[in-house]
Amino acid sequence: MCRSIKTLREPYTPEVTDTDVQAAALQYVRKISGFRAPAAHNAAAFDAAVAAVAEATRTLLDQLVVRGAAAPRGGQAAASAGATVSGAHLER
């Protein structure tokens, strides 16, 4: 794929914003479709694909369990309880 795609999961990115997820989804759809900006007759399909990829990305990040990631700033108790940090669950 593209080498400039930024890794969004812990521990590489401490906080993933909706803007990060949206940008990654847009980049993916552009790469797959071959269009930087679609023609008017393809805009709805393009926008729907970006929204679907963004939703799938957020679901993935929310469900990932990262083993051995650093404890959240709140301390060890949250990490050992399986707390979510920036969308990724910590597991020790």
Explain this structure.
With 92 residues, this protein is mainly alpha-helical. 46% of the residues lie in helices and 10% in strands. It contains three helices and three strands; from the N terminus they run ααβαββ. It has helices at 18-33, 43-63, 76-80; strands at 65-67, 84-85, 88-91. A hairpin with a 2-residue loop joins strand 2 (84-85) and strand 3 (88-91). Helix 1 packs across helix 2 (43-63). The longest helix has 21 residues, at 43-63. The protein is elongated. It starts with 17 loop residues before the first helix and ends with a strand.
Features:
3 helices, elongated, 92 residues
Topology of this structure?
Layout: H1 18-33, H2 43-63, E1 65-67, H3 76-80, E2 84-85, E3 88-91
Parallel strand pairs: 1-3
Antiparallel strand pairs: 2-3
Helix pairs in contact: 1-2
